[in-house]
Amino acid sequence: MSTLVGTHSEDLPEHAHAPAHEHRDDTAAKIGMWLFLFTELMLFGILFLVYAVYRSIYSEDFHHAALELNVALGSFNTFVLLTSSMTMAMSIAALQKRDKNLSMVLLLATIVLGALFMVNKYFEWGAKIHHGLYPASEHMRTLPHGEQLFYGLYYTMTGLHGLHVLAGMGLLSLMLYFVVRDKIRPDRHVMLENSGLYWHLVDLIWIFLLPLFYVTT
Amino acid sequence: MASTVVTHTPAVLNYLEEKGRHAGILSWVLSTDHKRIGLLYMYTMFAFFGVGVLMGLILRLELLTPGPTIPGFTANMYNAVFTLHGVIMIFLFVIPGLPAIFGNFCMPIMIGARDVAFPRLNLLSWYCFIVGAGIAVLALFTGQGFPDTGWTFYVPYSLRTGTNVTLGMLGAFIIGWSSILTGLNFLVTIHRMRAPGMGWFQMPLFVWALYATAWIQVIATPVVGITLALVMLERAIDVGIFNPALGGDPILFQHMFWIYSHPAVYIMILPAMGAISEIIPTFAGRTIFGYKAIALSSLSIASVGYLVWAHHMFTTPMSLAALFVFSLLTFFVAIPSGVKVFNWVATLYKGSIDLRSPLLFALSFIFLFSIGGLTGLANGALGPNLHIHDTYFIVGHFHYVMFGGTGFGLFAALHYWFPKMYGRMYNERLAWYYWALMFVGFNMLYFSMLILGMEGNPRRYYDYLPRFQTWHVVSTVGSWILVAGLLMMAYNFIRSARRGAPAPANPWGGVTLEWTVPSPPPVENFHEIPRWEGSAYHGFEKLQRRRSEAQ
Ligand code: HEM
Ligand SMILES: [Cu+2]
């Protein structure tokens, strides 16, 4: 591909020998990521809409059902996720300051905090299921419609959010590998920043889920 | 490095010849070249289109006489076939539509770029398309067969039927990702990779249309994704959201479905309108009338289009105020489409018209789309809607829009850009013949449906009252004529792709950038990124001046 040398030197000063499909545009990568985040917002946005509809129809039932949720555990998990967002941001800052080791440690901490969140979630769901509170269970069928819908939405929305946390952990593990391998470096870290954006979004969605399900009463 | 001499060898391979890292079929299915990806989409989409047409033919044959017509073809099979027909035509043909084929092939060249912003993501979106389609095909042959719900998957029936709804929906869900990723890629490409000097209002109108479409793809598609996911979840574990037995509301599904699926009709039609806006000036030999109006009408269609979804649900319980507002907004959204039609006609006025097959198809687009659009207003008005809801009038209407509009628009684009894609010309005389067949067949097939609908024949029925038969026969005969035309068109293109006369770089006298590169284009389109000056179609201004001086 060296045949392309100098042909587009104006737009691409540093990487003029790269072929077109390898040229680098960090702004483009960031716009792309933001657009992707829009799609995620639409995805969850519609679920929030469904929640709003049923909550307005069955507000009393929602109130009762929400009393069953463990506020302490929910708050603890919020704390865990918020902390992980902080370590994420610090990891990027560390890399920009060329402290690769610190960046790796912070990234690892983010992943571990994500895992901690999932472990809590596991116990939380486990306890509910143990009490027979899961979709289509016999106990559930004895509850009023609004409470059934509350739990239906609870499992759907926190479940989808949990999937996003898992995906985020996978993504961050890949980023950690890239940092180790120097594929992500202080001078080219847009991928890490984009992964950070994703992680913050996952965090942000949780911030809405917490009041809607746990402290709605 | 800015002063380095260009070391390009002038004899660059074109994108069809280039070998790259892989050989044979791998050089296609692993290619990140936007032009090859465009062709990959084209081949797969046309294959599905063929299957969809076959299903349509079967439906029409069954409707030739009242009562059972095809021996052994049951009412349940009829339901599965119209669902399959609808799913294929919607999700595998018109939704990917022009952006997947011509957006991929032409857009980067038209803005003076070497590729899209994320070439590998582009290939990934083709794979999402293929995997999704594969899963839908799997739904045909496993379990209790293909869904019989209609392409709209309405609950509560889709929760209850024993057919493979979950698999069918999973296919549609994954295809949705393909649409989102393409939209995302095009948005970034158009924002970041325009040639130096090409401002927003200097872009070709096809690019504008793709830009507006891409926003809809990105913002609306997740809505249908989550809606389908909820139905799948409902079928698997009974969460209750759409299930009236558990307190859920099935009408909510319809709202969520149409919040996507109405904007989706603009995903289908806007790019076709964009292609028409390229073809008309080229064959009228003059710059487009009302450039800004056309560009901005794409954006306004895209945005107002979000606010009209409930016109598909006028027969569900809704407040009178809601009915009124949705109907009014539906009328509003027709205005920008009307603006485009008037601008196209005004462009032709006093142009020096060179009537060739791309223009022929473009003109029939305008005619057929106008019928589709005006019948759409009949649907959008509250009174008539109650009368024609769920009748053949609706089936006639949406075929006029999706097939007469997007389908003919796509054929127009194919006749226009085919020489660029393959570097070969097709048989122009043959094109006129099959155009005539298609145009006549089309109107017989679907105008009869409009009449049947007015007379009260409901849609999605295997049978009908004997008094409806005359128009059903006209319609079925029309389907044969139309398909004869489609086959001739397929023959023309398949033959010409290999044996057509070599095409020059600019066979039609177009002025946008794709006509400045050889046909077929070299691997990375430009060896020097062009610099753009003047308006999008300024090339015609010179031509017009010369013409008026000559007079
Ligand atoms: C030769 C071509 C075609 C023929 C003969 C044909 C015929 C038909 C017939 C007979 C029906 C079902 C009527 C009913 O029982 O309700 C139908 C439905 C439909 N067609 Fe076509 N069609 C053709 C092409 C297309 C194209 C190109 C598109 C889209 C671009 C399309 C989209 C649809 C859709 C979405 C439905 C509704 C399916 C449903 O009710 O769920 N068709 N078509
Ligand atoms: Cu609509």
Characterise this structure:
The complex is a heterodimer of chains A (217) and B (551). Chain A is mostly helical. Chain A has a single domain, classed as Four Helix Bundle (Hemerythrin (Met), subunit A), CATH 1.20.120.80. Chain A contains seven helices and no strands. In chain A, helix 1 crosses helix 2 (59-67), helix 2 packs across helix 6 and helix 4 (100-130) packs antiparallel against helix 6. Chain B is built from 17 helices and no strands. In chain B, helix 4 (97-110) crosses helix 9 (250-284), helix 7 (165-192) packs antiparallel against helix 8 (205-237) and helix 15 (428-455) runs antiparallel to helix 16 (469-499). Chains A and B meet through helix 1 and helix 6 of A and helix 5, helix 7, helix 8 and helix 9 of B.
N-to-C CA distance of chain B = 51 Å
Task: Give the number of helices of chain A.
Answer: 7
Helix content of chain B: 55-70%
| Second-tier CATH architecture of the largest domain in chain B | Up-down Bundle
The domain count of chain A comes to 1
Assign the CATH superfamily of the largest domain in chain B: Cytochrome c oxidase-like, subunit I domain
Largest interface comes to: A-B, 44 and 55 residues
Uncertain ranges of chain A: 1-21
Task: Tell me the β content of chain B.
Answer: under 5%
What's the pLDDT, averaged over the residues of chain A? Answer: 88
Structural class of chain A: mainly alpha
| Cα-atom radius of gyration of chain B | 24 Å
Which terms summarize this structure?
heterodimer, A: 217 residues, mainly alpha, Four Helix Bundle (Hemerythrin (Met), subunit A), 75% helix, disordered N terminus, B: 551 residues, Cytochrome C Oxidase, Chain A, 17 helices, 67% helix, binds protoporphyrin IX containing FE
Short description:
The complex is a heterodimer of chains A (217) and B (551). Chain A is mainly alpha-helical and 217 residues long.
